[in-house]
Each structure stands twice: as structure tokens, then as C-alpha cells.
Amino acid sequence: MAAAAAAAVGGQQPSQPELPASGLALDKAATAAHLKAALSRPDNRAGAEELQALLERVLSAERPLAAAAGGEDAAAAGGGGGPGAAEEEALEWCKCLLAGGGGYDEFCAAVRAYDPAALCGLVWTANFVAYRCRTCGISPCMSLCAECFHQGDHTGHDFNMFRSQAGGACDCGDSNVMRESGFCKRHQIKSSSNIPCVPKDLLMMSEFVLPRFIFCLIQYLREGYNEPAADGPSEKDLNKVLQLLEPQISFLEDLTKMGGAMRSVLTQVLTNQQNYKDLTSGLGENACVKKSHEKYLIALKSSGLTYPEDKLVYGVQEPSAGTSSLAVQGFVGATGTLGQVDSSDEDDQDGSQGLGKRKRVKLSSGTKDQSIMDVLKHKSFLEELLFWTIKYEFPQKMVTFLLNMLPDQEYKVAFTKTFVQHYAFIMKTLKKSHESDTMSNRIVHISVQLFSNEELARQVTEECQLLDIMVTVLLYMMESCLIKSELQDEENSLHVVVNCGEALLKNNTYWPLVSDFINILSHQSVAKRFLEDHGLLVTWMNFVSFFQGMNLNKRELNEHVEFESQTYYAAFAAELEACAQPMWGLLSHCKVRETQEYTRNVVRYCLEALQDWFDAINFVDEPAPNQVTFHLPLHRYYAMFLSKAVKCQELDLDSVLPDQEMLMKLMIHPLQIQASLAEIHSNMWVRNGLQIKGQAMTYVQSHFCNSMIDPDIYLLQVCASRLDPDYFISSVFERFKVVDLLTMASQHQNTVLDAEHERSMLEGALTFLVILLSLRLHLGMSDDEILRAEMVAQLCMNDRTHSSLLDLIPENPNPKSGIIPGSYSFESVLSAVADFKAPVFEPGGSMQQGMYTPKAEVWDQEFDPVMVILRTVYRRDVQSAMDRYTAFLKQSGKFPGNPWPPYKKRTSLHPSYKGLMRLLHCKTLHIVLFTLLYKILMDHQNLSEHVLCMVLYLIELGLENSAEEESDEEASVGGPERCHDSWFPGSNLVSNMRHFINYVRVRVPETAPEVKRDSPASTSSDNLGSLQNSGTAQVFSLVAERRKKFQEIINRSSSEANQVVRPKTSSKWSAPGSAPQLTTAILEIKESILSLLIKLHHKLSGKQNSYYPPWLDDIEILIQPEIPKYSHGDGITAVERILLKAASQSRMNKRIIEEICRKVTPPVPPKKVTAAEKKTLDKEERRQKARERQQKLLAEFASRQKSFMETAMDVDSPENDIPMEITTAEPQVSEAVYDCVICGQSGPSSEDRPTGLVVLLQASSVLGQCRDNVEPKKLPITEEEQIYPWDTCAAVHDVRLSLLQRYFKDSSCLLAVSIGWEGGVYVQTCGHTLHIDCHKSYMESLRNDQVLQGFSVDKGEFTCPLCRQFANSVLPCYPGSNVENNPWQRPSNKSIQDLIQEVEELQGRPGAFPSETNLSKEMESVMKDIKNTTQKKYRDYSKTPGSPDNDFLFMYSVARTNLELELIHRGGNLCSGGASTAGKRSCLNQLFHVLALHMRLYSIDSEYNPWRKLTQLEEMNPQLGYEEQQPEVPILYHDVTSLLLIQILMMPQPLRKDHFTCIVKVLFTLLYTQALAALSVKCSEEDRSAWKHAGALKKSTCDAEKSYEVLLSFVISELFKGKLYHEEGTQECAMVNSIAWSPESMEKYLQDFCLPFLRITSLLQHHLFGEDLPSCQEEEEFSVLASCLGLLPTFYQTEHPFISASCLDWPVPAFDIITQWCFEIKSFTERHAEQGKALLIQESKWKLPHLLQLPENYNTIFQYYHRKTCSVCTKVPKDPAVCLVCGTFVCLKGLCCKQQSYCECVLHSQNCGAGTGIFLLINASVIIIIRGHRFCLWGSVYLDAHGEEDRDLRRGKPLYICKERYKVLEQQWISHTFDHINKRWGPHYNGL
Fold first, then answer.
1. DSSP letters along 1640-1651, please?
2. Which of 346, 1044, 1144, 1626 is the most buried (most CB within 10 A)?
3. CA 928 to chain centre
């Protein structure tokens, strides 16, 4: 191959690559310029030839590579520069040539200038985010790219954002698809007029170069495609070729983006037939081209396509459109089954095969109609390119290129025709493809662009027979998976159905074709052609019949099925997509009278298809037992078109109805489905597995119901309105298998139904009748009424969110369209029937969405149980609706008891369906009602309240719809009516109600009680004059002579039936001996329906003579019987309502009711309580008692739990009940007593059996997020915005520590600060205690428990046994006194000097570790837990790793962290005093003991103990030898709060109160001095000197030590010695000194500086000594805390303004000690004045921490982040997320950013939050929380206008921030309660 190629190029090849690269570039440009000049001459033949030669040379240089790609000898091929070099070379040449010697980029710019782009046409691929606006869209498929959407004005429109599934293109500027008002600014104005004409020479070169380039591409594709040996080229080979071609196709794609001018050149090239002929015919000398042409032919053949070389075979040379169809037809043979219509443009381009002429096409032989299926002839590059695109299974790049060309109108038409021409080939490739999903998406990506345009679709339909092709292709596709139908007559059935198990159906492979078909049917002009074309309709009905009866279910009677098939998904999807949606599409064009003809056509062919189907399955009259199919698309087509005809087209119903026989057949299968639904719900199909329930649910589910159950019920209503009512009613009871039950005898046998199913089947039958008679969906309701009824039904079942309502209301047009019929009416109906409940947040953490709930008047007037029953998928929803109805009645005081479903008045019937009401007035039904009333009154078994309810409902329906002609005189008694029926005289319910029935003959088993009685002659035949035959009467069958019309039906109802037709058995009698013999008994009844009703009233009310006719008191009542009093209530109310209606309709009835009531009814025999019933009664009583007991226990338990439960969930509800069990001991007992929640014993904690608190230890960085600014930071939403973490508390403390460590001794530095701002350990408890040994055994049992827990027992995690709060450790309680009555608390009168001495001595004593006891072991282990809670980097700050100073620092910092966090939980100050829940369940006391115990192990060398420096003057030695080693940290640089904790934890516990106060006093002096020093550094030079002098004057006064002016001036003068103030540059002064300091502002500064210390100290005192915190105003916080801590002398007066200095109590003379402290700094500041100053100014005013502030609208976040690249891997993440604490952008689950098996989110949660991360998932709008090794979905803080979340942005509606939710999230973060409040946690295995 390589040799051949080289030879073909004529040996010029080697000469080229040898040119030096730079020379080559010049050479190319020069050549290009020269050629361009040559071609511009008028006689350009020479130039053209030269160019051809050059192109031949350049573009053929690549040939060998393709060979290599094709897998041939690669070594020979790699001519020079390795693979790819030649391609790049060729591309460079092409670019040069196109530009004609200029620069390629300039050329591009020049071409763009001529772009008349009126269309956007941006093409996108799957997963792209686009918009759809229903307000602007004409076609339902309209979509816009984000840019065009945001540039246009869509405010207030119904739009949504969506993720493209298959890819798409932007329609902006295309007025065929969308309204012009929606165009964006760019595409609104441009019209072709103002675009200058393209200069000829600009694109001249392109016209010459591009044909060769495209041909070269096609040669590649031919070369690379190797027909595989087996089933298809391996994906690998194809992908290899495509990768090689990437640059070429991208080059073409770039050309298309240059705009209109270049596109039209490309169009010319792609569609020019001459070019194609010349280059590809393979007739030239060029061996290479020949070879590729052969490969092309081979590819065609192997695809099963012929290349019509020999035109003569086809009978006509270049046939014209007219003749071709017949000629081709003749040749292929008229036997051709439906093949696939691929209009094989054999003739010239517009010619087309007229396929419409073929009439009915039957599945006869295997030959296919080749004209459509098998012939392809390519005449242009475009056609062959598409061919290869299909062959290579639609590579994305090629698809994008082909679609990018679409804005060119000429191309669009040519391409659409080509696409249609290849339609059959596409289908074949799709069927074979392994990647059918991807391929489907790509096909639809193309076709939706072509077929959404009505003008284009119409043109292709007319010129290329698009409809024929589509229908044939669909038919052909389904033909491949047909099987014989087993419905009805398995052996002889001729019907074939699709096999739902086939991949084609299971994987929905057909959907691209179906969706195209639906798409084109949405265009009126196309649909009209379809509906007019009889041949097409026949073919289509043929297609639909393939689905008729598919997925047949056979009831399993013995074993449970082994394997539950899931084929029903495929079956329902197929019926919906392939049958129902095209049907809705067609129906939408049959709206007006003028379209009557279409309906007649459809109905006619539909009936023909049905007739064929009945014949094929051999159907006579009885359906085969125990089988059901839910798929009857032909019935449904028929029903829906009938409904449309009557509703919109004013057609006469009878003119489109078939004869009676056909109606009888038509009703059988839909009725069978209704009966099967009842059977399935009665658990009769339980052996078929769950999937049969699934089918029953899907059948009524909102997306299917209006294409399935609704048409079925409507068809049954039509049949019922036209058939004999007695026959219809009989059929219903027979189908439901309850005929035998309808006897007056108390016992009976049912040959076809088990006793346990009888009741629910009877309920099913009656409910079905009620639905059939009261549903008006297709019988006269308007669309708005229907919408309202649907909405009310859904809202009554449950409150609904807006989106779930939208989803639950069945929509009419195919759901694909996305256009909701009258979405405006949706909103208006919704606001009319429902109230909006705003989303609330419950303290339990469950977040509510915004819900709609029915208005009161809806419950009152519109609640319709029938509609609810029809629409419930789960039976429990009916109950839910009734419960809600009951609650409404109770609440509104309308009815206190348990109401029955209310009776609702119906919309009036459309006149065409009046016949339906005859069902209510037929004797058969009256007999059934009479029998059932009687049985209920007599308490026969298997009857329920539901049965009674339905019986009364039917009676009431009958009264509401009674025939008017009933006269008041006795209806004519005589006449033939009387003779053949002794049950009732006529058929009108009103008169039949009062008819007394005396005797009834029944057939009963010999064992029945009735047999014992005497049996007088019968007056009336058995209960049901219908359904059962006495021995003589023949069994009625549909085949019986139809000449007698319905004689049999009538006879049958009058005679006696004793058995049900047993299908499949020849004998009509049950086999002898199979059951006890039946014998005849005669019952005396003597009741009428009216008397039964009155007795029933007595029975229900439980009183004699409870019914009193109301009209006797108020005659008015009969005139207007609609009385609100009767509209809600139970059975008694219903009976009263019926009697009232009966009386108001007929005077006779009124009289008879009065008569019955007058006869004082003999007492009804007391109800015999059978043993069984007694059992149930006892059961009830027992249950009641058990319930009461349980309630009592629960109440006790609840009161025990109350104390903590109220606060367990909600962190800051101030509560005032007693603190938890920790502190509940009585005053006189000095030892604390604890309850163990596991063993329940109480007792003190002891050394050998210690008790512990259940605690949760967690690392926290919340403190580190505090800033000195109240405003939270904003989440960045543009590139400019950034978040810098320099101002956070954590950062400031880090900087300070590292600064100290630079200049001072390490061990001393570690005592001068606290750590734990990041990664500090926070300890919280639920307040419950347990014995530590009990806890160990509890953990053991958890470890053995195999149940999946949300926590890891191995990590020590558990839930508190009492309150189930999450915990992971136990904090031992130190034995000893209770906090409240501490003997050490009593104040002593020692002087401060003595106390200082004592403190020092106590600290000096080494804390020997107590002996090894259980307690000490636990103390040690909990300390280990605390250490392990946080990462090492948050514990080790020392320069020498592992030094004890580290541990020391860590331990007192744990105390600091917990105190600081508690302060934050209290809102950052202590103004609210002691009433905070945070304090209630605090474990600080216990924690202090544990820490103190461990701290005492490290004795601080007394040399270095800061206590000395604070309380003693040392002799100063200036030459202390600073040089040899780093000095200690000066005391003024120490953090005073840290000092406090060190001092206290170094003391033996329990601490004495006066020691505590002493320490605080001493430290306050230091703190105050620090404040003065900081103040002095902050103010300006002048201020300083002024203060210095002012203070110096007062120094001698008596209270100089308590005057801040004196002290300040002294500090200034002392610090002055150490060059501290000298460094100030001028510009810095300008910055700092804008503040003028007044005495007030100085005082405020000093107080603010000292406050944080006072707060922490007060908290500490509160926890150690159990003293309450006082509450106060914010401005007096300082003084209140100071006096609470004992700093303020008690006699202090409050008249003059408070001065902080008055709290000072110097242990040694103030001036001396200050001098000493300042001296320490002096030597440091002499060298490092800057740092010295920085260390003095300590930032202490931290504000509360906040999460980032989020923007109002979610779209701003989404648009910025979803395209943002990750800073680590520079890719756009698949799942981007952003941290809400610090704003970092991370890849969720991204393997790209994984480090040592940790994904980025987990890693970030450790670095940013010490294991707690809060991330907003950009693509899902939800927040996830990572806590250590677990994570949970928290929910969303963005809700739409209806208060709903939109997880995963599925609905794409605009979302807005919900501030309340965000506040809750922040609150949970700050209070560390994520673990307690969120319930659904799972492990993340570091994979997030």
C-alpha cells in the first residue's frame, strides 16, 4: 500500500520534507500568493492545474498514514517525521493556501467580518447547561445557550435551566422555532441587507482547496474502515482512525465557525455533485483513488445496501418521480412486506419514490421493500460523509461539524434530505450497535434540529416521503422482535406481539426513531398528511397492533414464580412512547369540526385492526381465565378518538360506533383489566411476585393514567351506554367472580373464588361501578374542570409541593413536549383550591418544603372520594385522604365522628352518553342492591362497611339520575313486564324502591340453617335474577343467534342461574361430589328497599325507631333537598339523605316511608354474637387496655426524659429547669450522686468504680474563623473577588507564635500563648452518666451487633443509651464534692500577700500521679482520646518535636478552646447571665480535673514560673548574658488568659475560691499594664508626651496606683527608654493617628482590652464553683463581671462614672513592678522596635464567626462555578464544590486532585475545619457536611419561588437563598451539633 501511494505521487515525495522548516514556511506563503495571483487572472486554467498538482502532492502525502491506521504494515508507512507529521504538514499547507499567502489568523478575521449571522446555532454536546423558555418557544424542543438566554429578556417567563442529555443547538434568531421577542440582543437586528458583499477573491482559494481536503478526509474514512470478521468493527480500531482524524475534523469545525460567508462555500463544496463525481468515481488512473473506491463499495455491500450501478435493472433510466414508484414496486415484487423507507434518491435529487400508493401491507414473506430498505446512492460529499458518520457510529466531532453548518439555509435543506435518505441505514446501524445509548443521543441531537422546524418538515414530507419512511422503518425495526401471542387461544393464535424481553425494547433502542416521529407529528401540516393517507393509517394500526396484548401475565395458582421478570418496565414504556405519544400528537390536530374526516379515518382503521385482532386471537365471547395484559393500545386509540370526536368535533357518536356484537367484544378486555386490578389488590396474584403489583400501580400512575386507565374506563362507559344494562351489570359481577356471593342465603359456595377474597372482590366490583357511573372525565367535563378535579384529588391525599403537583397531574400532550397545557390555568386553579404553607424549619432538624394544602371550602364542597380512588397508586393514600377529611370536619365542627366518604354532585352528562344512566335503572342492579342491603342487615359474613357505603352511593346515584317520566300514580302494573319477572315491576329505581318482595327461592348447601325451615311456594326467583342459570335455561353466549337481538339477555336475567359459566370445561355443572349438594330453600323476606334502609338506620344508630321523617316537621325540606346538614356525616346521614331524596321524588315513597315508621317495628332480634365476632370484640377491648397501659408507661418515660430532650435538639433555647443529673444532689449531701443510664443504679463516683459523662470529642476550627469584622465575607462570584484568610483569628495567632519563636526561647514561647484556634478539641456532653465498666460492656455488645450503624464502633463511637446522642468517649467524674456546696468556697480573711505565698507553695508541690486505680487509668485513657481527636499538626508547635512543653501547651489550650467556644455559644458576651443551655450540659468541671491531673505531672521549674515575675521584684542585672542564648518571653508579651489557665491547672484540685480570686487579681494587674502599653503604642507622639507630663504631676497623690493617667504616663516613660517609640515613620503616623483620644475613648479602649479576659474568667469561676452568672446590660458588662470576680471592692459607689483602674489591687508597689516588666522588653525593642510594637498590640476584640455570605440568586453562583477550572488540576471538575467556610473551590470525588488516597473535599475538610467541612455542591445546589470519617447530605439553602429545594437542579427553576435555613446551618456549625441533628450519616471512605 505504501509503495503504491508513493508511486502514485510520482516520486516527488522525498524532495519535500528536506526543505528547512523556516524556508518552508516562506515557501508556502510565497507559493500560495503566487497561486492566488495565477487564479485571479481571467484565464486561470494553468493556475488551476498547478494548484491541483500541488494539492494532489500535499494531500496525498498523508495516504500511507491512513494505511497504518487501518492496521497494515506500519513500518513501511512511517515515511518521515513519525505519524502525524504529514497530517500537520498538510493542514499547514491548507491554511496557507486558504489565506492566499497572508496570515491565516488575519484571513479568519477578514471572513468573520462578512458574517450575516442572524442565527446563533451554537452546537453543544451532552451535559451542557442550556435554557428552555416555554413562553417564547413555538416548538417544544426550543433551547437557548446560556449566553443568548441571559442576553435576552425572559423576566416573568416560564423558563428553566436543564442539562442537555443528547446535546443540542441554540435556536436564538430562528423564528421558526421561537418567538422573536425572546431573541437576544445579538440576534435581534441583523438582517442581510446591511452586510457588505463578500469580495470574490477572499474565498476564491477556499473553493479550490476544500473539495480536495474533504475528499482526502473521505478517503481516510474509507481506508480506515475494515469490515470486521465478526459482529462489528472493534470499537478500538474505529476510535484509532477517529483520533488520527481529530485535527482535520477540528479544522473543518473551525471553518464553520468563521460565519456565514465560509459556510456557504462549504455548502457549495459539500453538495456539488460534479466535484464528487470527478474526484471519487474511481475511474481515473490514480491507483490510490481506485483502491479507496473499492473499499467504499465493499462497505456498502456489507451494510446490506446495494449500489445501483446498473440502472436498467430498475426498469427505467433515471425514472421521474411519477413512474418510479410503480416501476420499483413492480420490480421488488408487490409481496414486499413493510421494509424500511429509505428514500433512496435514485433519481435526481428531488425525485422521490411515491410509496403512498401501496395499500395494506401484510406480514407475508421475508422480502423487504428494497427501494426503502436497501438502496443507497451517494451523489455528493455530504451524502458520503453522512454515510461514514453513521458507519462510525456518529463520532461526536463529526456530528458537531455537520450541525455547525445548519445556520446555512441551503445546507439545512440538503442535509435534511440526505438524513432522511439514510434513515433506514441509521436504524440498522443503531440496532447492531453496542453503544446504542450514546448513538441514540447523537442521532436525536441531529434529528431534533432538523424536524423541529415545521417548514422544513413539511418540505421533506412532500419531497422525500418522510412519513412513509418513518412508519416503515419503525415497523421494520419492531418486526425483528415479534413472538406469537399467547392471549386467549394459545394454540391457534395468529396474532404476533413484540417480545418485551428483547434488548430493543428493554434498552429503549427504538426511542430516537419514535421521538422523531412524535416530533414531526407535532406539526399540523405533517399530521394532516398522515391522517389523510389511508395507506399510512393502515400501516400504523398494523404497527400499533404489535403492542396489543404484549407482556401477558398468567396467574400462578400453585408455586411462587421462580424468577420475577421485570419486562413490564419495557412494556409500559413502549406503549407510552411508541403508541400513546404519537396518538396524543395526532389528537392535538383534531380539535375542530373541520377535522371530522380525520377522526372517521382513524376510527375506521382502528376498528378494522381490532376486528382482525379478535379474529387472530380466536376470540368468541369469554376471555381466557387467569390471564391479563395491561396493554390494549388499539382500544385506547379508538376510545381517545371517540372522545375527541364528541367533545371537539360535534360528531354523532352513533355514527362511529360499531354494532352491538363488536361492542360486547370491545368491553371484555378493558373490563378484564379492572377485575384483575381488584384481584391483584386482593392478593390473588401474590404468587406472581411483586412485579404484578408494580404493573397495577404503573397502570394508574400519573404519567400513564390518561393513556391507559382513563381511555379504558371511557370505553367501558361508551359500551355500557349502548349495551343492554342487565347484560352489562351481569358481566361485571361475573368478571369480578362474585356472582355466587349475591344470594340471600346465609351460606353459599363460590366455584371460582376463595372465601377470603370474596369481600375485597365484592368491594372492587361495587367500587368499579361507582367509578364507571360517576366519572365524567370524558363525558362532559371541560379541561379546566378536569384540571381542578385532578388537583383537588391529589391535594386531598397529601399536602403537595408545587413540583410534585405538576408531576402528578396527568398532562395531555406527549410529556416529551414539555409544554404544559395551559400552565397559566394551572397556577390560577392552584391558587383557587389551595393555600400555600411557607417552608418552616422544625427544631428536630427536619426541613420542610413549601407545601400547598386544600382550602377549607374545597374539603367542604369539592372533596371527591371517587376521583381519589381512581388516582391512588397506593391504597394507603385513600385512607390518608379520609383521615385528612375527618380531621377537617372535626376541626371545623361540622361532624365529630368518623365520617363516610361524602356524596358529590356530578357535572351533567353530555347528551351522547345519556344511556349510561340506564345501568342505574335496570332490575339486575336493583336485585343486587336489594340482596346486599338484606345481607348487611342480617349480618352475613364477608360484607363490610365499604360495601354498604358503595351500595348506598349507587342508590343515591340512581335517585339523582332518575328518569323523569315516573308518574305519581302506581306505575302501570299490568302488561307483559309483570309476567316474566317477579322481582320488580319496572326498571325505575324510584318506584322499585317501594316494591315489597315477599319470598325468594335460594339454592343453599344442605348444611345451611335455612334448610330446616318450611318451604312454601316461591314467589320470586333467586336473589339474582341475572347471573345464574337454573338447570333449564341455557348458558348465554355471545355466539347465540344474534337474530333475537337481546332476547336471551332478558330471559337470562329473569330465570334462575345456578352456576357460573366455567370456561374450558364442557359440562356446565360442577363435578358431582365436589361440594355439599345444593338444595332449594325458600326464604320469607317481606321487605322493600325502603324498609331495609329504615331498618338499617335503626341498626346503625343502635336505637329502636331512630328514624323520624324530617318532613313531618318541616314540609319545606322536600322542596329543596340540598341541605348542608346532610352533606357530611356517616352511614346514618347517608341513609337519611337517601330517604329524603326518595320522598321528595315521589309522593308514594313519602307515604310508604311514613307508614313503615308508624308500624312500631318489632325489636330487631339482638344481634347474635358469633364466637368469631366475640373474639374480635375481646381483641378490641384487650387492645384498648394495652394501649392505655402503654400510654401510661410512655408518659412516665417522657417525663423522665423531658429535662434533657427539650434541649437536646435545639442549642440555644434558654431554659430554666434544674441542671442535669450531674448536679441534682440535695444540699446536705456533700458527695455528688450520679445515675448510670445503663444499669440504672445511682451512687457516687469512686476510685475503683468511676462514673463518667457521655461526651463527644471533636476537633474544631470554628474559633479560628473569628474576625474583627461583624460583616461576614462574601462568596466570590467573579474572577476579581478573592478571599484572603489573613485577618482570621487563627492566622493572627499563628503569626504571633512564630514571631515569638523567632526571637525567644522555645519552651518559654509555648507558655506565652494558647493554641487550638484551629483544630482545638471541643468536648460536649448530653449530660447523661454511666459507670465506666457498664460502658465497656455496652461497647462490646455494639461491636458484636451486626446491624449497620451510622458510626464506627472501632473508633470508639457510640450513641448515648438513653437519648441516642452521638458520642465517642467517656469523661470520668472526679470523686468528691458537689460543686454547689464546696467547703472551699467560704471566703477567708487572709491578706493578699499570704494568699500569694500559699499559691506559690501549692504550685511548687510536685503532683505525684495517684496510685494506679481504675479512675486514674480512665483519666489517662480519656486524655489519650483527647489528644487523638485532633491531628498532630494542631498539637505540635514546638521546635523540638515531642517536647513536654508541647503537651503542656496542648492541655491548657483544650481548656481555653472549650471556654472560648462556650462564650461564642452565649453570643460572644455574658450579658444574658447564667440562663444558657450551653452551661446546663457543660462538662468543663470534669474536664478540668482530668487536665489538672495531667498538668501537675509537669512541674514548672520555679525559676521560670511566671507567678514569680508577677508577684515579686527581682534585683535587675542588666548584663544577664542575653548573648549566649535566646531570652525568655517578656511577661508583657504573655497572653494573660493562658497564664490564668496555667496557674489554675497547676494548683491541686479542688481549688479554693480565695486562691482563685488571688490569682485573678494578680493577673489583672498585668493585663491592665499590657492595655496601657498597647494604648501608648497606638497613639501619636503629641498625645504621648501630653499624657506623660499630665500623669507625672499626679504621681504623688494617694491613689496614684489606681489612676490610669499616672500609670499610663509611667508606662510611657519606662518604655521610652527602650527605643520603642523612635522608629515611627511619618506615613505610619498618618495612618494610625486619625483618632483623637479623649478620656472616655481611652477608658473604653482599656475596658475592651480587658473584657475578654474577664469573660473567660467569669465562665471559669461559674464552672469551678457553680456560681451563677449575673445578667446585665452590654454597657455595664465590665463592672458587673469585675465585681462578680471580686476585683471590685464591695463598697464601691456607682455615682461617678466607672473607671476600670479602680479594680487594680497591686500585690507589690505598682511602679516598681511595672519598671521590672518594661525592663524585660527594653533590650528586645532596642534591636527590633517594629516587632516589639507588634507584639504589644494584641488584637483581642474578636467578633462571632460566620459562614460566607451567599448571593440572593443561585444562578450567580452556578454560572461562575460550574465552568470554573480547578486550581490544582486546571480541569473543569465534573462535580465542583465550594467550601462555605473559606470559599475554596474543590473537586468533589475528583480523582485528579487525590492525594495519598484522600480526595480533595476530605482533605480540605481536614485542613480548613480540622475534620469538619461544609460544602455547597454546585451542580446539585445541596450542601454536604463532612465530619471526620462520615458525611451527610444536609439539604439545600436555596429554594425556588414555591419554597422547594431543587436537588441536582433537575427542574432548573430559579432558586433564591432561604435565610432561615442558612442561619440554621451556621448555628449548627458554630454549636458543633451536626452529629446530633442530622440523622443520615454514612462513611465516605475518603472518596469525596
1. HHHHHHHHHHHH
2. 346
3. 49
Computed over its alpha carbons, how large is the radius of gyration of the chain? 46
Q: Could you read off the pLDDT of 1588-1646 as tens digits, one per residue?
A: 888 777 777 766 777 778 888 888 888 877 666 765 543 344 344 446 678 888 888 88
DSSP string, 1694-1734: -SSPP-GGGG---SS-HHHHHHHHHHHHHHHHHH-HHHHHH
Q: How far, in Å, CA of 1307 to CA of 1506, rounded?
A: 13
One-letter amino acid of 853: T
Indicate whether 1257 pLDDT > 90: yes
1826, HSE (Cβ side, Cα atoms, 13 Å): 32
Q: What is the DSSP string of 425-484?
A: HHHHHHHH-S-HHHHHHHHHHHHHHHHT-HHHHHHHHHHH-HHHHHHHHHHHHHHTTEEE
Encode pLDDT of 659-687 as tens digits.
Answer: 888 999 999 999 999 999 999 999 999 99
Q: Each residue of 1462-1507: pLDDT tens digit? A: 999 888 888 876 544 444 578 888 898 888 888 877 766 655 677 8
Over residues 1136-1151, the pLDDT tens digits come to: 888 888 888 888 888 8
Q: Residue 1641 corresponds to which cell in the numbers above?
A: 475613648
Q: How far apart are CA 133 and CA 819, in angstroms?
A: 10
Rounded distance between C-alpha atoms, residue 1310 and residue 1444, angstroms: 10
Instruction: Write the DSSP string, 159-199.
Output: EEEEE-SS-EE--TT-TTTB-GGG--HHHHS--GGGSPPPP
For residues 1842 and 1851, is the Cβ–Cβ distance under 8 A? Answer: no
3-state secondary structure string, 721-787?
HHCCHHHHHHHHHHHCCCHHHCCCCCCCCCCCCCHHHHHHHHHHHHHHHHHHHHCCCCCCCCHHHHH
What is the enclosing helix (H) or strand (E) of 1079? Answer: strand 1078-1087
Say whether 353 sits in a helix, a strand or coil: coil
| 870: three-class secondary structure by DSSP | helix
In 3D, which of 177, 167, 117, 121 has the Cα closest to residue 147? 121
Q: Which of the two residues, 1778 and 1725, has the higher pLDDT score?
A: 1778
Alpha-carbon distance 53 to 212, whole Å? 11
**Overall residue count recorded for the chain in this entry:** 1888
In angstroms, rounded to a whole number, what is the distance separating the alpha carbons of residues 752 and 1070?
11
Q: Is residue 565's pLDDT more than 50? A: yes
Q: Locate 1242 and state its grid cell.
A: 445511682
- Please name which of 48, 53, 69 lies closest in space to residue 9, comparing C-alpha atoms: 53
Question: What is the rounded end-to-end Cα distance, in angstroms, of the chain?
Answer: 52
d(CA 150, CA 152): 5
**Could you please report the per-residue DSSP string of 1197-1252?**
HHHHHHHHHHHHS-TT----SPP-GGG---TT--B--EEBTTT--EE---SSS-EE
Task: Look up residue 1704 and give its three cell numbers.
Answer: 487594680
Does the predicted model carry a pTM greater than 0.85? Answer: no
pLDDT in tens, 1146-1178: 888 888 888 888 875 554 444 444 555 555 556
At 6, give phi and psi (nearest 5°): -60, -45
Q: How far apart are CA 558 and CA 490, in angstroms?
A: 20
* 889 membership: H or E segment, kind and range: helix 876-892
Amino acid at 1331: H
Determine the Cα–Cα distance for residues 1748 and 1274; give it in Å rounded to an integer: 5
Continuous segment of H or E residues that includes residue 1084:
strand 1078-1087
Type and span of the H or E element at 528: helix 524-532
Under the banding of pLDDT at 50, 70 and 90, the label for residue 332 is very low
The torsion angle over the Cα atoms of residues 1201, 1204, 1207 and 1213, rounded to 10 degrees, is: 110
HEC sequence for 1104-1121: CCCCCCHHHCCHHHHCCC
Cis peptide upstream of residue 1550 (ω within 30 degrees of 0): yes
